[in-house]
Amino acid sequence: MVVTLIIVCEVGFWVLLAAGLALRYLAGLRRTGAAVLLMEPLLELVLLVVTAIDLKNGATADWKHGLAAVYIGYTVAYGHYTISWVDGHVAHRFAGGPRPVKPPRYGLARARHEGLLWLRTVLMAVVASTLLQCAIWYVGDGDTGSLRSWQAVTLRTVVLHGVIALTYLLWPKKDPGRDAAAGGEAAGPREKTLR
Predict the structure, then answer these.
(1) Are 43 and 13 contacting, i.e. CB atoms less than 8 angstroms apart?
(2) Any stretches that span the bilayer, and where are they (predicted)?
(3) DSSP per-residue letters across 54-95
(4) What's the CA gap between 170 and 140, in Å, rounded?
(5) pTM of the prediction?
């Protein structure tokens, strides 16, 4: 039941997102569309309540409950970011809004962008691990090994994403356009001296 609800919540997230944006930009009902978008967190609340009820009714804490906690954490950390990204693209495409700003591709700006994404992953892990710990306390003396393993998964995710984000800082990708321009300027004076 919990897995089915996670799938329903994911589908519901995209349905509410599409409905809210359609109301905002296609139907011109900006406030109604915003109200529909604000209903997104209710999906996670329903998932949290159903998961707690499932545990209270004697279900063995297993991978489904851990997955529910991670899903809620992911939505808390990345939900608004995703909605804003999609909203910017829909506004540009259907409402004459400005072209969305692409994330930086080179240098320290890209490293900063990746660092901010990593902080979202940290938030996801904190929320998920907190929910998992609450479930562990709630279950008490029962088998909580699966929930603890999900806590380890969130920690590994933070470490792995952190290493990836750190590579952008340690080995920043250089802008090929800038290098070509700098190389062209440097070549100019040499050509003059050879003549």
Answers:
(1) yes
(2) 7-27, 33-55, 117-138, 150-171
(3) HHHTTPPP-HHHHHHHHHHHHHHHHHHHHHHHHHHHHHHHHH
(4) 44
(5) 0.81
